[in-house]
Amino acid sequence: MITHVTVICTCYNHGPFVKESLESVWAQTHQPVQLIVIDNASTDNSRTVIQKAIESRPNVVFLRNTHNEGLCKAFNRGLEQATGKYVIDLSADDVMLPDRIEKQVQAFESLPKEYAVVFSNAIYINTNGNQIGYHYAIDSALRAKGHVPSGDVYKEVLRRYFICTPTIMMRKSALMKLGGFDENLSYEDFDFFVRSAHDYKYHYLDKILVKKRVVAGGMATNFYKIGNSLLRSSWEVCNKAYDLNRSQEEYDLLAKRIRSFIKKCFIAQDAAQATAFHKLLNYIEEPGWKTDALVWLCQLGLPINSLYQYYDRWRNQRQRLLMQQGVPFVQLKSEA
Fold it and tell me: What are the beta bridge partners of residue 5?
């Protein structure tokens, strides 16, 4: 029986990259693939590039948003038209290797239905398409050197970022039960990981199946910008996790994650959000004088953000150099 897969490609100002991303879908060894492309009101030439790329491919669903609805709402618009058994959320600057869908479908078809996500390793590339490094460190056989969590990963999702989001393939039935992505949030992965990992299992497929593009001004950098909405979304997810948790260990892991967000609030000079995180932390454990002091300093409104921007640019350059020397991205992320 042929397994149908849907790829939802969301684009916002990805003009230089979207053609390569779309072509990577058409080059898949597994067919059929339903491709849904959503231009989220790009202000560059993305829409023109997309229209030209798909003009000889009548089966592509092309949705043109008149205003930027945010990633989560745009994805859900595509999900409404998805017919595949499995779904991929593809950013229009990332590239799928030709056997990505084939390998992930094979893995899914061998797994019980309690598995909602299959994910893999990835190559990181720069804006020119040159390889920078890997998500997980690899050996000579291109296998991950260290242990990658698989199965029940809820505690690991609370603990840290470890899944390369562009590599995930989702079981559509599970995604629909979860209600798709939360449209009230500014970004999707932390929330989706928390809600899905609580109810379902994840499978790590030890293969390199995606090229993840690293561009300036990515989400990791945006967390530290003054007035960003990502911290508010993270607070919302932490509240959801608080309600979902089932053990003291899970609450301890959540507390540690909340403390990391308070540090981000300090750098972003977001006193109101730091106070909200502090209040949530207080429900779990005594914050302690160091965290209390950090929130107090945040409330003082110290102008540290501009200084941090210089440090952030230096850190990003250092991380790219370390990746080129073989340090995996997931390790650099955990040290941030």
Answer: 33, 86
The half-sphere exposure of 268 on its side-chain side, counting CA atoms within 13 A, is 24
- Cα separation, 241 vs 118, in Å, equals 22
What pTM value is reported for the model? 0.94
Residue 60: DSSP 8-state? -
Over residues 98-138, the pLDDT tens digits come to 999 999 999 999 999 999 999 999 999 999 999 999 999 99
Identify which of 233, 295, 229, 237 has the alpha carbon closest to the alpha carbon of residue 266: 295
End-to-end CA distance of the chain: 46
CATH 2.60.40.3760 is held by the domain 5-215? no
**Range(s) within the chain of domains with CATH label 3.90.550.10:** 5-215
Tell me 2's DSSP state: P
How would you classify residue 166: left for phi > 0, otherwise alpha for psi between -120 and 50, otherwise beta? alpha
| Of 185, 181, 210, the residue nearest 195 (C-alpha) | 181
The amino acid occupying position 92 is A
Please give the backbone phi and psi of residue 213, each rounded to the nearest 5 degrees, phi first: -90, 135
Taking the CB of residue 27, how many other CB atoms lie within 10 A of it? 13
> How does residue 304 score in pLDDT terms, banded at 50, 70 and 90?
confident
DSSP-assigned letters across all residues of 121-133: EEEEE-TTS-EEE
Instruction: Identify the CA nearest to 42 among candidates 22, 66, 72, 24.
Output: 66
Cα(264)–Cα(287) distance, rounded to whole angstroms? 16
